[in-house]
From TrEMBL, chain A:
Species whose genome carries this gene: Bradyrhizobium denitrificans
Coarse class of the protein's main subcellular location: membrane
Lineage, opening ranks: Bacteria, Pseudomonadati, Pseudomonadota, Alphaproteobacteria, Hyphomicrobiales
Name of the protein this chain belongs to: ABC transporter permease
SUPFAM superfamilies hit by this protein: MetI-like
Record-stated family: Belongs to the binding-protein-dependent transport system permease family.
InterPro entries: BPD_transp_1_N (IPR045621), MetI-like (IPR000515), MetI-like_sf (IPR035906)
Transmembrane segments: 22-44, 118-141, 153-181, 201-220, 260-286, 306-329
TrEMBL record, chain B:
The organism's place on the tree of life at top rank: Bacteria
Protein name, entry field: ABC transporter permease
Family: Belongs to the binding-protein-dependent transport system permease family.
Species assigned in the record: Bradyrhizobium denitrificans
Keywords associated with the record: Cell membrane, Membrane, Peptide transport, Protein transport, Transmembrane, Transmembrane helix, Transport
Localization annotation: Cell membrane
Residue span(s) of domain ABC transmembrane type-1: 87-275
InterPro entries assigned to the protein according to its UniProt record, in alphabetical order: BP-dependent_transpt_permease (IPR050366), MetI-like (IPR000515), MetI-like_sf (IPR035906)
UniProtKB/TrEMBL annotation, chain C:
Subcellular compartments: Cell inner membrane
Recorded topology in the membrane: Peripheral membrane protein
Family matches, as Gene3D superfamilies: P-loop containing nucleotide triphosphate hydrolases (3.40.50.300)
Protein keywords: ATP-binding, Cell membrane, Membrane, Nucleotide-binding, Transport
Protein's recorded name: ABC transporter ATP-binding protein
Coiled-coil ranges from the UniProt annotation: none
């Protein structure tokens, strides 16, 4: 008649392990960020034309004195290694060069456009997760039947449709034929609206881009959730839950979805970059003033300065997103948290 | 529409018995894709001449003129000709970019997984770099810098997608490395290259093949996206380009957009179905 | 046997969907379990004992169903009940514990949450009350420091501890019957004895019936009151565990003979006696007795006709040529 207390790694052991975990992940971020920096630097170097011209905006009409200042600032007559260090220092102080086409420092330009992109991608992600999980769970629970096949077919169709095509299609349907929603832009043209009226206007303009971007990922997450749920339902603890006499809905949520969230969160993290890629297309189609549209304009104008800055910014965003996702995963999975 | 993470590597090689026994998804995907390849190969016989030529009156709807079964576009180019020739570009770019991505990714993954140590660290950092920078952004930048030519488009797309293959191959290599028959080969004096090529690579091939089908689908989508934004090779017509060129006529003549759009959707669906089917086949073969 | 049995099974047929259509994995099964009694269900892999257990608990998976027969639990027929009614039985009138505890608990929920869930599924009590009950349950299964344990996660605990917790969950609502499907097979030998002793103690304290499924005859003689031997989906012999040595069915005797013995002090080691042949697969069509091919006492009759169940004393045997018990007269 023996018994035992919980093993040494009980719930109260190592309370600071979470802090250490965060610290560790932050440290791991550094080499990646450095590599992004180097890549952005290389892009500048690879771009055709004199680097200073590029930095000054390659408009041909650069102020000679300004160009000379830039030359010195970025150490363009120095060896490459020094240039890289100077570039790093400049980046860290927020100096990313100047964009002549837009007549603004790159850093300022990017800063102005970050929020709309975050708004778009954040909401799109939310829509994608909600629809995707709902679809995937439904498909898994009705496996083999009509609902499952239907959801699978819709998901496949959405996945195969290029973002720009879906966007254009929705724009025509809702913006032109039905006239329910605006066809593009950030807010209504008479920008005098303030407060709630403004927010409402922005919201209306957000609907189509968010749906376009979100649907593709909803398709992916739906398929993923379905296979995760099927795998989970083959596990022993589902049998235990049934043996307890729990209702199927409770089992699906508390034992099924709750465990399916773990790999789903990982997938979302892996796709963060992809989401931003999609934003480039969607923002351009709907004239949404975010980083994506900025990237498209930069490419058209061959504004390598701006592009390099965008690489830095988006890369950093993805790295930060991955960190958040990792932390989220740790909160969801006690096996990671308490080792 | 399989995700890379869906793929499980078998411990035995894949056996394809007969076409009949393949799952339905795989069969339909293969049929569609083969049809497209045939059409693309025969493009010059089906529609000789330059698809960019102004062949007829513009804005002809499908069915108006029996000479142009799918109609003409804004400038009067034959849409059917564009479709058939565009298939070439989409498929060539799709397959080539994937071949590049698979080659680079497999090499990196094998080396990284098998050799471990600092090689692994360095290679993984580089892989992570290519994973972190948004793919489409990198692609449009590369094409902008290098120029909008087929070779560079293939290069750009390939460079942005190899990281997925590298991660997959690395994971599989790590697992396979521990298996007994690999250890025996090493114990008998097999050098790393020999072990990697003769023991590990053949067993990683099946998941790589599945990954290749997914990557090809993504490559076709990316190429279409690039073309839509004016970054396609102007010497070759492409489906995305056709859509981009018809933007102004979107409301008045939607068929100009829908027809090439449908072609893209069907191609990507076929590739996805092949990927799904191969995954199912792998799982089936594993448990047999 | 004075009181009405807690469980009464008559002519149970369980069908399973397979590539060949629906096959019978359990055929014509009769069982009785009295209050406070331990019935051991014994047999090799594939004999249908696990499916029987699932059927008794109302837990048959998709693809398996009760084709015919009756299962009466505490006076209520459960074989035809719709899913909703079955759910009310599970975890309340019938508890079930399975073989491998390692993956049987949800990894992302605490132990406390999982026990409380079992309690609140059938009783409307406050969370605080349920937690307090959970703590008492942990004490009943002999786990110390219950309060701390409630906060723990499954991955922090050993296999033996997890199995105790699963038992606690199964008995949380004082079921009439507890079914344990090979509860110790996946555990260390030392822990095995503890778990079985625990089950026995719980049974005595609460008067619930215990159905113990196992392939280990050694356990049976130690812990069971009655035993039912299954072969190819049928119960070929049922008798009290005390009279196991007098087993009448050739299969039972063969199983007993096949147990490894300790090496004798003198003389050569004995070979392990084996039963030649193999177990028939579910759905394999057999004319006559399923055990005929492997039976030393087989005759032509055995191949032609499936044997009925005869009563020999308080035992039931399904054989044309059962071994004669030492005291009683052989049947015609």
């Amino acid at each position: 008649m023996t018994s035992a207390a919980p093993a040494a790694t009980g719930p109260s052991a190592r309370p600071h392990s979470t802090g250490r975990y965060v610290g560790l992940r932050l440290l791991q971020m550094v080499p990646t960020l450095l590599l992004i920096l180097v890549t952005a630097f290389l892009l500048l170097k690879l771009a055709p034309g004199d680097a200073a011209q590029v930095l000054a905006g390659d408009s041909g009409g650069g102020d000679a004195a300004y160009i000379a200042t830039l030359r010195q600032r970025f150490g363009l007559d120095q060896p490459i290694a020094i240039q890289l260090l100077l570039y790093a220092r400049n980046v860290l102080t927020g100096e990313l060069g100047f964009s002549f086409r837009n007549n603004m420092p790159v850093a300022e330009l990017i800063a102005a456009r970050v929020v709309p992109t975050l708004l778009l991608t954040g909401l799109a992600l939310l829509v994608a997760v909600l629809l995707g999980v709902a679809g995937g769970v439904t498909a898994a629970l009705t496996r083999g039947r009509l609902a499952d096949r239907l959801i699978g077919a819709i998901a496949l169709l959405l996945y195969a449709t290029p973002g720009f095509l879906l966007g254009i299609g929705l724009m025509i349907l809702f913006g032109v034929v039905l006239l329910w929603l605006p066809t593009g832009g950030y807010a209504d043209a008479n920008g005098a609206a303030e407060g709630w009226a403004h927010a409402g206007s922005v919201a209306r303009h957000l609907v189509l881009p968010v749906v376009t971007l979100g649907m593709l990922y909803a398709a992916i997450y739906s398929r993923f959730t379905r296979s995760a749920m099927i795998e989970i339902y083959a596990q022993d603890y589902i049998r235990t839950a049934r043996a307890k006499g729990l209702a199927p809905a409770r089992i699906a949520w508390r034992h099924g979805v709750r465990n399916a969230l773990l790999p789903l969160v990982t997938i979302i993290g892996l796709q963060a970059g992809s989401l931003l890629s999609g934003a480039i297309v969607v923002e351009t189609v709907f004239a949404w003033p975010g980083l994506g549209r900025l990237a498209f304009e930069a490419v058209q104008q061959r504004d390598y300065n701006l592009l390099s800055g965008l690489v830095l910014c988006t890369g950093a965003l993805v790295v930060i997103t991955n960190l958040i996702v990792d932390l989220l995963y740790a909160t969801l999975d006690p096996r990671v948290r308490l080792r | 529409m399989t995700l890379i993470s869906d793929i499980a590597a078998p411990r035995t090689l894949l056996r394809l018995d007969t076409l009949r026994r393949l799952p339905f998804a795989l069969r339909s995907g293969l049929v569609i894709l083969t049809a497209e390849v045939v059409i693309a190969v025969l493009a010059n016989w089906l529609y000789p001449g330059d698809p960019f030529d102004l062949a007829g009156a513009p804005f002809l709807a499908p069915g108006d003129d029996p000479q142009f079964p799918l109609g003409t576009d804004i400038l009067g180019r034959d849409i059917a000709a564009g479709l058939v020739h565009g298939a070439r570009i989409s498929l060539i770019v799709g397959f080539s970019a994937t071949a590049l991505a698979v080659t680079v990714g497999t090499t990196v993954g094998l080396l990284s997984g098998y050799l471990g140590g600092w090689v692994d660290h360095v290679l993984m950092r580089v892989t992570e770099l290519f994973q972190v920078i948004p793919h489409f952004l990198l692609a449009i930048i590369l094409v902008a810098i290098l120029g909008a030519r087929i070779e560079f488009i293939v290069l750009a797309i390939g460079l942005t997608s190899w990281s997925m293959v590298a991660r997959l191959v690395r994971a599989e290599t790590l697992a396979l490395r521990e298996l007994d028959y690999v250890r025996i080969c090493v114990a008998m004096g097999g050098g790393p290259v020999r072990v990697m090529l003769t023991h590990i690579l053949p067993n990683v091939l099946p998941p790589i093949i599945v990954a290749a089908s997914i990557l090809t689908a993504l490559a076709v989508l990316t190429e279409a996206g690039l073309a839509f934004f004016g970054l396609s090779d102007s010497n070759h017509i492409s489906w995305g380009g056709m859509i981009g060129a018809s933007r102004d006529a979107l409301l008045t003549a939607p068929y100009m957009t829908l027809i090439p759009g449908l072609a893209i959707v069907v191609t990507v669906m076929a590739l996805s179905l092949i990927g799904d089917g191969l995954t199912a086949l792998l799982r089936r073969g594993d448990g047999a | 046997m004075n009181a009405a049995p807690v469980l009464s099974v008559r002519d149970l047929n369980v069908g399973v969907r397979s590539a060949r259509g629906e096959v019978d994995a359990v055929r014509g099964l009769d069982l009785d379990v009295a209050r406070g009694e331990t019935l051991a269900l014994v047999g090799e892999s594939g004999c249908g004992k696990s499916l029987t257990a699932l059927a008794l608990a109302g837990l048959l998976p998709d693809g398996a169903r009760i084709r015919s027969g009756r299962i009466v639990l505490g006076g209520v027929s459960i074989e035809g009940l719709p899913e909703r009614r079955l759910r009310r039985l599970r975890g309340q009138r019938v508890g079930m514990v399975f073989q491998d505890p390692m993956a049987a608990l949800n990894p992302v929920l605490t132990i406390g949450e999982q026990i409380v869930e079992a309690i609140r599924a059938h009783r409307s009590v406050s969370r605080a009350q349920a937690r307090s009950d959970a703590e008492s349950l942990l004490a009943r299964v002999r786990l110390r420091e219950g309060a701390q344990l409630l906060q723990a996660f499954p991955h922090q605990l050993s296999g033996g501890m997890r199995q105790r917790i699963l038992i606690a969950i199964a008995i949380a609502n004082r079921p009439d019957m507890l079914i344990a499907d090979e509860p110790t097979t996946a555990l260390d030998a030392t822990v095995q004895a503890e778990i079985l002793a625990l089950l026995d103690e719980l049974r005595r304290d609460s008067g619930m019936a215990l159905v113990l499924i196992t392939h280990d005859l050694g356990l049976v003689s130690r812990w069971a009151d009655r035993i039912a031997v299954m072969y190819a989906g049928r119960a070929v012999e049922t008798r009290s565990a005390a009279t196991l040595a007098d087993a009448a069915h050739p299969y039972t005797r063969a199983l007993l003979a096949a147990r490894p013995r300790r090496r004798p002090l003198r003389g050569p080691r004995q070979r392990l006696a084996e039963i030649t042949g193999r177990v028939p697969l579910p759905g394999e069509v057999i004319s006559g007795c399923a055990f005929a091919d492997r039976c030393a006492a087989m005759t032509a009759l055995c191949r032609r006709q499936a044997p009925e169940t005869q009563r020999l004393g308080d035992a039931g045997v399904s054989c044309h040529h059962p071994f004669a018990p030492r005291r009683e007269v052989a049947l015609p």
